[in-house]
């Protein structure tokens, strides 16, 4: 049995009667008292009368809270929802039920949630549901049959990751829950069209909000969706964009007058900057380090979704991919999936999604390697959304701890160099052929340097020693010359005969110095067979000796590296102090000494004496900066051995460590940095005195004394307005200060009320009840009294003068004004306010 009117079993009929009896007290509050209406609640709870009753009573409380009976007429959604929240009713299906369309693609969920409250969303949907219920009632009366449910069409074209934003899914889930709990059996069928590959993921996120009965009503249509729609909806009732014939009066196939298409929400509608989220985990990323989260994706099409916020400043974030789970790798060693960039997550929480195109281990990396001063506290939530309908989209995570990325300089004596390995006999032919022709089975296995504590090491007299190793050799081999084309650059010191198995020996080689134009020179090693006196080259790539020039540095390497690091620090200090100290205005330092915090006063007192000598300080800092940068470039050139390399290295080092970092620090904390480095500053001022002091005196003569920043009235007022969000002045104080500063520029005409807008009383007025009530309702304490024309002011009435006046006496106004005789002051319209204030002070 279907459980509908006319198709009820005996038990269902009894349940209906019992249900009606138990809710008799609240039936008058229901939108309908018919059996059709009551059966909807029973079907929703499988004819469990107790559960159906609880559901209905809860619904009636919901209706009171939402004022559902009048919501379609008395409540209007916010403008942003009316304009940019898609959906609308358009036409009827073949059974007469209203058809509702939701257009998903153009919807901007983040913009809507930042512009309207969640309650507004729910009320908007309640309003839509009530409107549809009324339309069903009208259709029932029109068709003469019961119409109680609707057909919904979801146009999913354009469904993307932005629609999977967690707050949007949560809000949509609340709307679905509201619909399930308060409008049971209100959905006849839901047809999903143009579903993209991402649809299964989206459906997994919301299906747990739906009952099993509702899920069975959802149909995901394929490429023939237009034909299927026509099966349920007559083409005359179906919009042309969906394969029907219905259009707007202007011919619009989308029927925009009935179906709101949504759209991107302009930021002018935003009521808040971000939505507060609850995060699953929190981690601290140390300065100069990174933190990696690993998620193993086993099937393509899964979606990684994340939200994070940061405390302590911006943080870098990127997504990478690797093959093996649990193996820590640098970012440069992994495949970059989403480029790492810095996000201001300390101001606005960041969220995003990524569709995983292929299986693998995806690494979410929080990057703080660029910060050398501050650690970052990152709060985050990460979910893996599964595309399969068979699995619940539960978050899966496998997290590895963050690892610090450490960078540093190191020094040493050079690296041991292996020149030749696996040497072969023979030259120009294969080793086997050579051995056969020579009648020899000997091979040279290797050659090594006896001293190799530094590259291209030589003995004191220019001799390189190497060892020849023979194997299974009964033949005599002699090292005497190097190949047929003998070189005079290498001279073999003596010779060595190998005439037994397993013998080895050491030969001395004297090497001539390289020519000036040569960076290196390679030599090939040959052997001679005594039987035929033939020389054989030991391979094309083996048996070679490379001679390189020994690098001589201006300083020992370890010391040179230390000096370069110190120079970078000094470069940063000069650059930072140049910006930080010179930006501190002498006038501002005096102000800070008077009204700053105790620390600021202490800092200002230290800095103020040298800041008074502005040009001397400037010359000292610039001279020191130029000297340090020049020396740094020279040392880097000596270290790298390349002019271009020195230019690149010095540019990068000076820009990052000598300009950007210190200036960013000193621009915000110039007072503290300048005070804590005051002794170093004085030292360099003294060191550069012979050159910087004369130049500073010349600048003093040419440019004159440095006065500092001075504000006139207009600038002072504007400065107070601009800094209003950051100072502790309340609006009333700011208005008072602004008014006081404008006393000498404004006239009485600028502040006085127009005569036509003044509340005035005629001198012949009688102070009866009506007149005195009018005076009291005006709210003024001093009221002009005129005679004849309103421009003829003859007296002033003080409200306090009416304290002892009885309205029943009907006293004339003239009596009161003559008794108190308050003087009327007349001034010219161009009188300045400061003069007017002085005039008021003279009057008692």
Automatic annotation (TrEMBL):
Keyword Ubl conjugation: no
Transmembrane residue ranges: 557-581, 615-636, 642-661, 673-693
InterPro entries associated with the record: CBS_dom_sf, CNNM, CRAL-TRIO_dom, CRAL-TRIO_dom_sf, CRAL/TRIO_N_dom, CRAL/TRIO_N_dom_sf, GOLD_dom, GOLD_dom_sf
Gene3D superfamilies linked to this entry: CBS-domain, CRAL-TRIO lipid binding domain, GOLD domain
Ranges for domain GOLD: 272-384
Domain CRAL-TRIO: from-to ranges: 77-250
Membrane topology label: Multi-pass membrane protein
Protein name: SEC14-like protein 2
Family recorded in the similarity comment: Belongs to the ACDP family.
Domain CNNM transmembrane stretches: 553-733
Localisation: Membrane
GO biological process: monoatomic ion transport
Keyword tRNA-binding applies: no
One of the Pfam families matching this protein, by short name: CRAL_TRIO_N
Record keywords, A-Z: Ion transport, Membrane, Transmembrane, Transmembrane helix, Transport
A single Gene Ontology CC term: cytoplasm
PROSITE patterns in the record: CNNM, CRAL_TRIO, GOLD
Domain of life of the organism encoding this protein: Eukaryota
Organism per entry: Hemibagrus guttatus
Main location: membrane
């Amino acid at each position: 049995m279907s459980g509908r009117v006319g198709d009820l079993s005996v038990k269902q009929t009894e349940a209906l009667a019992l249900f009606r009896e138990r809710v008799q007290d609240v039936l008058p509050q229901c939108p309908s008292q018919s059996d059709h209406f009551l059966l909807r609640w029973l079907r929703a709870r499988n004819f469990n009368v107790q559960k159906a009753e609880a559901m209905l009573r809860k619904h009636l409380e919901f209706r009171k809270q939402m004022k559902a009976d009048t919501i379609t007429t008395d409540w209007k959604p916010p403008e942003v929802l009316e304009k940019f929240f898609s959906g609308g009713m358009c036409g009827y299906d073949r059974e007469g039920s209203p058809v509702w369309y939701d257009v998903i693609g153009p919807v901007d969920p983040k913009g809507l949630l930042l512009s309207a409250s969640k309650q507004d969303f729910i009320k908007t949907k309640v309003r839509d549901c009530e409107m549809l219920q009324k339309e069903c009632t009208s259709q029932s009366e029109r068709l003469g049959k019961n119409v109680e449910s609707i057909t919904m069409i979801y146009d999913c074209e354009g469904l993307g990751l932005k629609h999977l934003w967690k707050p949007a899914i949560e809000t949509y889930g609340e709307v679905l829950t509201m619909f399930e709990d308060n409008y049971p059996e209100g959905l006849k069928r839901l047809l999903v069209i143009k579903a993209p590959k991402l649809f299964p993921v989206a459906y997994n996120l919301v299906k747990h909000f739906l009952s099993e009965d509702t899920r069975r009503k959802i149909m995901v249509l394929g490429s023939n969706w237009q034909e299927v729609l026509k099966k349920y909806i007559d083409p005359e009732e179906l919009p042309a964009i969906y394969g029907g014939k219905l259009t707007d009066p202007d011919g619009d196939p989308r029927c925009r007058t009935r179906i709101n298409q949504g759209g991107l929400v302009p930021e002018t509608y935003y009521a808040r900057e971000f939505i507060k989220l609850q995060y699953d985990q929190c981690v601290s990323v140390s300065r100069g380090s990174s933190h990696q989260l690993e998620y193993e994706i086993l099937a393509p099409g899964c979606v990684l979704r994340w939200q994070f916020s940061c405390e302590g400043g911006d943080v870098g974030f990127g997504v990478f991919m690797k093959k093996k789970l649990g193996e820590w790798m640098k970012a440069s060693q992994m495949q970059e999936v989403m480029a790492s960039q810095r996000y201001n997550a300390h101001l606005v929480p960041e969220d995003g999604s990524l569709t995983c195109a292929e299986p693998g281990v995806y690494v979410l990396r929080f990057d703080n390697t660029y910060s050398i001063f501050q650690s970052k506290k990152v709060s985050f939530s990460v979910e893996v959304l599964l595309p399969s309908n068979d699995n619940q989209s539960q978050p899966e995570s496998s997290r590895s701890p963050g690892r610090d990325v450490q960078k540093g300089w190191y020094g040493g004596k050079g690296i041991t160099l292996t020149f030749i390995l696996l040497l072969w006999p023979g030259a120009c032919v294969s080793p086997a052929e050579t051995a056969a022709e020579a009648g020899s089975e000997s091979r040279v296995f290797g050659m090594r340097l006896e001293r190799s504590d530094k590259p291209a090491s030589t003995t004191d007299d220019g001799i390189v020693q190497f060892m020849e190793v023979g194997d299974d050799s009964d033949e005599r081999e002699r090292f005497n010359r190097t190949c047929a084309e003998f070189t005079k650059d290498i001279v073999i010191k003596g010779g060595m005969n190998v005439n037994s198995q397993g013998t080895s020996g050491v030969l001395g080689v004297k090497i001539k110095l390289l020519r000036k134009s040569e960076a290196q020179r390679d030599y090939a090693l040959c052997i001679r067979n005594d039987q035929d006196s033939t020389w054989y080259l030991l391979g094309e790539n083996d048996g070679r000796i490379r001679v390189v020039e020994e690098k001589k540095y201006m300083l020992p390497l370890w010391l040179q590296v230390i000096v370069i690091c110190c120079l970078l620090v000094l470069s940063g200090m000069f650059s930072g102090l140049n910006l930080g100290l010179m930006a501190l205005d002498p006038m501002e330092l005096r102000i800070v000494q008077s009204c700053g915090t105790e620390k600021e006063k202490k800092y200002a007192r230290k800095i103020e004496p040298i800041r008074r000598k502005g040009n001397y300080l400037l010359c000292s800092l610039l001279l020191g900066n130029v000297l340090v940068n020049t020396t740094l470039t020279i040392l880097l050139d000596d270290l790298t051995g390349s002019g271009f390399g020195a230019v690149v290295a010095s540019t990068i080092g000076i820009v990052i460590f000598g300009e950007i970092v210190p200036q960013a620090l000193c621009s915000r904390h110039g007072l503290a940095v300048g005070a804590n480095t005051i002794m170093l500053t004085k030292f360099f001022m003294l060191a550069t005195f012979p050159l910087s002091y004369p130049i500073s005196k010349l600048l003093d003569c040419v440019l004159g004394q440095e006065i500092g920043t001075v504000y006139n009235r207009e600038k002072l007022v504007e400065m107070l307005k601009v800094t209003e969000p950051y100072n502790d002045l309340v609006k009333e104080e700011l208005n008072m200060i602004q008014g006081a500063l404008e006393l000498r520029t404004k006239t009485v005409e600028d502040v006085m009320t127009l005569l036509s807008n003044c509340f005035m009383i005629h001198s012949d007025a009688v102070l009866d009840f009506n007149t005195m009530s009018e005076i009291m309702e005006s709210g003024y304490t001093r009221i002009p009294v005129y005679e004849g024309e309103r421009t003829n002011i003859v007296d002033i009435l003080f409200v306090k003068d009416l304290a002892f006046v009885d309205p029943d006496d009907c006293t004339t106004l003239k009596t009161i004004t003559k008794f108190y005789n308050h003087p009327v002051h007349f001034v010219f319209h161009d009188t300045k306010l400061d003069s007017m204030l002085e005039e008021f002070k003279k009057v008692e």
